[in-house]
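Try this one yourself first.
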């Protein structure tokens, strides 16, 4: 079977980037990835842009970014599946190479979130299920995940303290990531004393909207080996699935069916098991989301996610290190960029370039990128030979 590899990675700083437009953020990450790969624009056959233009009130975003990157007249297109738009872009680029349509593709995830007021962003994101009757009750992302948290607590005895342990861990590693929005460690007491958002969730249970961009350069096996001066990171498992827009149609509220299906698909394609994964990036939009992700991905059995976190098994040296770049929680969540950023982090880990956040001898990594409240999930398995 043909293979697709990552030959270049780049990342812009996440945060309140009032110093840059969305095009400039995209260029910041693209330039870094091109320099990392050691290639020029003539080597690129196409680009895929992951973003949600509605969040910065800009349409035709792919063309705008493509022109700013200096890639015209090469083809480009936009992928948009809410918070999973970044990994949707990676998968789309991977598919175009696997199909033999292109040989080298630039994947750029980019987003400006902070120019809209919080109530406006909450309203836009809360209407992710507006075709369903739930939206008339003022649904918000914190509200949905608060329901997941309450049900998980009820069924498994998960505690809010275990959830806050996710925040403590992710801020611990975020403090060591130069690209993270929040670069300060926190204590469990500080997290516990934060303001309420949607019971039981508090401020430190929730990720923050951010501006940012990330980029990966993909190539087919022949071009990857010819162009890349660094170890090639291969995309060996690419799973994705969808769930109903309405949570009322879900079998339960303690996991995401789309994540479970996408994970099984990715493991089978890659020929690996959950116990083979050395490092993972999961979609921790809320602390309960990381707990559910660890269960959905098979890192522990259903109901044991809280204990896995509290026992420090998701730190370096534990059973499965998770979100060593700070995750969405500390790094920030520019929705279109998040999935590509996860891919950059795992590629960095597998290359051995993560510095003080490095997992020793990491060979196989995983990303888990969720759109909406689990309507879309993409799971990627990456491997270094």
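Now uncover the answer:
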């Amino acid at each position: 079977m043909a293979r697709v590899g990552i030959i270049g990675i780049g990342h812009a700083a996440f945060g309140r980037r009032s110093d840059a437009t969305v095009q400039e953020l995209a260029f910041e990450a693209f330039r870094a990835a091109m320099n990392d790969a050691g290639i020029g624009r003539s080597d690129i056959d196409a680009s895929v842009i992951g973003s949600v233009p509605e969040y910065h009130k800009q349409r035709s975003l792919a063309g705008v970014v493509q022109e700013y990157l200096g890639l015209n007249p090469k083809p480009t297109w936009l992928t948009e599946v809410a918070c999973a738009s970044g990994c949707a872009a990676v998968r789309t680029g991977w598919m175009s190479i696997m199909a033999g349509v292109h040989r080298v593709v630039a994947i750029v995830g980019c987003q400006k979130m902070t120019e809209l007021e919080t109530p406006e962003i909450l309203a836009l994101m809360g209407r992710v299920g507006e075709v369903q009757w739930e939206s008339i009750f003022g649904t918000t992302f914190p509200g949905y995940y608060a329901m997941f948290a309450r049900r998980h607590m009820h069924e498994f005895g998960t505690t809010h303290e275990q959830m806050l342990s996710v925040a403590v861990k992710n801020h611990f590693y975020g403090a060591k990531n130069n690209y993270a929005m929040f670069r300060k460690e926190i204590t469990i007491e500080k997290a516990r004393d934060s303001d309420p958002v949607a019971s039981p969730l508090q401020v430190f249970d929730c990720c923050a909207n951010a501006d940012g961009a990330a980029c990966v350069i993909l190539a087919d096996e022949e071009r990857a080996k010819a162009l890349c001066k660094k170890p090639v990171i291969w995309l060996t498992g690419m799973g994705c699935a969808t769930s109903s827009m309405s949570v009322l149609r879900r079998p339960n509220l303690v996991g995401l069916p789309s994540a479970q299906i996408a994970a099984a698909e990715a493991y089978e394609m890659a020929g690996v098991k959950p116990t083979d994964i050395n490092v993972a990036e999961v979609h921790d939009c809320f602390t309960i989301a990381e707990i559910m992700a660890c269960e959905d991905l098979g890192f522990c059995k259903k109901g044991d996610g809280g204990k896995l976190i509290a026992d420090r098994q998701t730190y370096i040296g534990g059973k499965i290190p998770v979100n060593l770049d700070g995750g969405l929680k500390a790094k920030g969540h520019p929705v279109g960029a998040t999935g590509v950023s996860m891919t950059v982090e795992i590629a960095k880990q597998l290359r051995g370039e993560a510095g003080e956040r490095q997992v020793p001898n990491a060979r196989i990594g995983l990303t888990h990128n969720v759109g909406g409240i689990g309507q879309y999930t993409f799971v990627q398995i990456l491997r270094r030979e």
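Discussion: The first strand starts at residue 4 and ends at 11. The chain has a mean pLDDT of 94.
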